Task: inverse folding
């Protein structure tokens, strides 16, 4: 195991920094998924034809955002957004700046997942909402969200894993993070062991996210 | 039914046409065709007819989920078509509805499912109840449908008949003057149907609720209805007075087998 302690001694600090960068990107992008993506997905669901707040224009706009962002290969989106990132953040380089395109994707992914999960709520629940004189916010908070909560948690898990994977690309704009670490300290300098080790650590992270998400989701589900 | 009771629901020459999705543009078919009838306060009114006769449309017209193409629907003295959105919501909160599929919230306990209408009412201040009053109302209505022991269970733990009774408790908890039931017993067997009918009959006797029940089961009509309207392809064929025999008189499953098969 001496190679492991050697690696740790040599790269420990850089690795810790990379992990912190990944953690930051994940946290901010997941927050935007939950705080913006979920409402956008809910809006798509509510404004659909036959939805309880049917509205074609709003539905079209929300759908357009989701589809356009999801159409971009992620690397191209990052490059495409550089001028915008510079305008908003003052710089287009570094972890914080790199998080912006990740948030765009996070919102789009989670909005679509949210819409899909809400569609699986039996249509009878919408019927009850209508027939019992619920306002749209009442239907959302008292009926749709409680009914969908377990699926929404599970979808957030899935989004988190996708975002972890997306975040590894952000090295190109100086985003850093664990994927960038594996490329620069491992692959590019022929330090294969370090690269493999990093990949194993990423796999462990994914397994942990999946396990936590699965357990939480099951606990919330009474169907 | 005594005619000195005022009409709670009135249909005046009501026609409802839908665009026929299956045929050429502009084609329409009438789900209801020139229907005039009135439902008296305090009666149990059956609506019978084959599928596609317009029964469900009739129900959706009463709580304003759909608007008539022609004619007027008057509920509690107000023309449903004249109501604004807030007025419609208020009307719907005064009308309990039970569907064939019940549609309970699966992640809520029985108690929380039943609480739903009370929480909806709170918003526009129509029923400013304290938590304690809410709790009492829920306990009372659960006892009424015979499900006090199930209050903290989830819908997936209940039988079909129990779920239907939770649906009834939810519809009745805010003591609406009018209860609409769309095929409330069609997925139930004879015994559980009897339990549901007992609740409907008690709702009229003890809570004073007027009940409109859509059904294709003539035994249901015979057991609890005062009158029944027979629909045929959107037209009101006849309103038949029934001398109901009570929910207890419902034929048992064995009786049904004997009648139909032996």
Result:
């Amino acid at each position: 195991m001496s190679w492991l302690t050697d690696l740790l001694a040599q790269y420990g600090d850089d690795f810790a920094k990379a992990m912190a960068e990944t953690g930051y990107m994940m946290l901010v992008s997941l927050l935007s998924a939950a705080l913006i993506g979920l409402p956008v997905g809910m809006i798509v669901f509510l404004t659909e034809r036959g939805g309880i707040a049917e509205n074609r224009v709003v539905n079209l706009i929300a759908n357009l955002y989701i589809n356009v962002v999801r159409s971009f290969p992620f690397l191209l989106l990052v490059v495409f957004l550089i001028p915008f990132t510079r305008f908003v953040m003052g710089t287009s380089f570094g972890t914080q700046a790199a998080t912006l395109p990740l948030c765009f994707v996070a919102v789009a992914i989670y909005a679509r997942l949210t819409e899909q999960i809400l569609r699986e709520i039996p249509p009878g629940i919408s019927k009850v909402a209508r027939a019992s004189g619920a306002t749209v916010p009442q239907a959302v908070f008292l009926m749709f969200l409680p009914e969908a909560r377990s699926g929404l948690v599970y979808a957030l898990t899935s989004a988190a894993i996708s975002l972890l994977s997306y975040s590894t690309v952000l090295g190109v704009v100086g985003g850093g993070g664990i994927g960038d670490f594996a490329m620069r300290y491992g692959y590019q300098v022929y330090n294969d062991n370090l690269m493999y080790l990093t990949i194993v650590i990423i796999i462990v992270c994914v397994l942990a996210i999946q396990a936590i998400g699965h357990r939480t989701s099951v606990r919330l589900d009474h169907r | 039914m005594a005619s000195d009771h005022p009409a709670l629901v009135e249909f005046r020459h009501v026609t409802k046409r839908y665009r026929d999705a299956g045929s050429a543009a502009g084609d329409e078919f009438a789900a209801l065709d020139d229907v005039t009838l009135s439902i008296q306060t305090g009666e149990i009114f059956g609506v019978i007819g084959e599928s596609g006769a317009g029964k469900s449309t009739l129900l959706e017209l009463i709580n304003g989920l759909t608007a008539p193409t022609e004619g007027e629907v008057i509920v509690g003295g107000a023309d449903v078509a004249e109501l604004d959105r807030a007025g419609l919501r208020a009307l719907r909160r005064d009308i309990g509805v039970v569907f064939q599929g019940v549609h309970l919230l699966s992640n809520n306990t029985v108690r929380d499912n039943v609480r739903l209408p009370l929480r909806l009412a709170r918003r526009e201040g129509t029923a400013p109840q304290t938590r304690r009053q809410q709790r009492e109302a829920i306990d009372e209505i659960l006892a009424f449908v015979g499900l006090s022991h199930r209050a903290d269970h989830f819908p997936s733990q209940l039988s079909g008949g129990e779920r239907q009774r939770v649906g009834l408790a939810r519809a009745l908890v805010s003591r609406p003057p009018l209860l609409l039931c769309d095929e409330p017993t069609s997925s139930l067997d004879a015994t559980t149907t009897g339990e549901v009918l007992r609740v409907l009959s008690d709702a009229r006797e003890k809570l004073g609720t007027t009940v409109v029940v859509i059904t294709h089961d003539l035994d249901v009509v015979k057991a609890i209805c005062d009158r029944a309207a027979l629909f045929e392809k959107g037209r009101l064929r006849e309103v038949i007075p029934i001398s109901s025999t009570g929910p207890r008189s419902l034929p048992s499953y064995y009786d049904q087998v004997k009648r139909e098969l032996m």
Notes: The beta strands of chain B are 7-19, 28-40, 44-49, 70-75, 78-79, 95-98, 178-182, 210-214, 227-232, 235-241. Chain B touches chain A at residues 63, 65, 88-93, 95, 97, 99, 101-103, 105-108, 116-117, 119-120, 123, 154-156 (CB under 8 Å).
